[in-house]
Specification:
The protein has 155 residues and is α+β, with helices and mostly antiparallel strands. It has one domain: Thiol Ester Dehydrase, Chain A (Roll). It is built from one helix and eight strands; from the N terminus they run ββββαββββ. The radius of gyration is 15 Å and the shape is globular. The chain starts with 24 loop residues before the first strand and ends in a 5-residue tail after the last strand. The model has no long low-confidence stretch (mean pLDDT 83).
């Protein structure tokens, strides 16, 4: 069951802006699954020799996965926009396989699946499984932990 229709601006759930934003829109969002779409642009910070780099793929899947937790902060606060009230970090990359890179102007279809989640006071730790496809081929799969906190939380 989708929490939002796909017309909701993904920037409401992510603090990233400009060339650092690696997700164009979500195509599915529930409490356990998120799917996003991103067109690799020429002006991306993560391009090397007309391809998105490994770092760009990792950033894309991290942003995709963090939409699940970011959306819960949005829902719970009933805000109209995130306004960077949360910040996230990759705390651990448990496993990652990068099979190929995508060319500039390719479209990445990314999926994040929530494996586990712990909500503390002002922060969330979650374990996520991720996958990126380009041209119907898996180009990355991974398992990672994210640490997401409200800005100002010092706990």
């Amino acid at each position: 069951m989708d929490l939002f229709d796909e017309n909701i601006d993904v920037k409401k759930f992510l603090p990233h802006r400009g060339s650092m934003l690696m997700v164009d829109k979500h195509t599915e969002l529930s409490e356990k699954i998120v799917r996003t779409k991103y067109k690799v642009t020429e002006d991306s910070l993560f391009n090397e020799n007309d391809y998105i780099s490994e770092f760009g793929l990792i950033e894309n899947i991290a942003q995709t996965c963090s939409v699940i937790v970011g959306s819960s902060y949005f829902i719970n606060s009933k805000k109209e926009e995130n306004n960077s009230d949360v910040i996230g970090y990759i705390s651990t990359i448990k496993s990652i396989n990068i099979y190929s890179l995508a060319k500039v102007n390719s479209v990445l279809f990314s999926k994040g699946e929530l494996i586990s989640r712990f909500d503390g006071e002002g922060y969330t730790i979650c374990n996520m499984k991720g996958e990126i496809k380009c041209n119907d081929k898996i180009i990355l799969d991974c398992q990672l932990n994210l640490f997401i906190k409200k800005n100002g939380y010092e706990g």
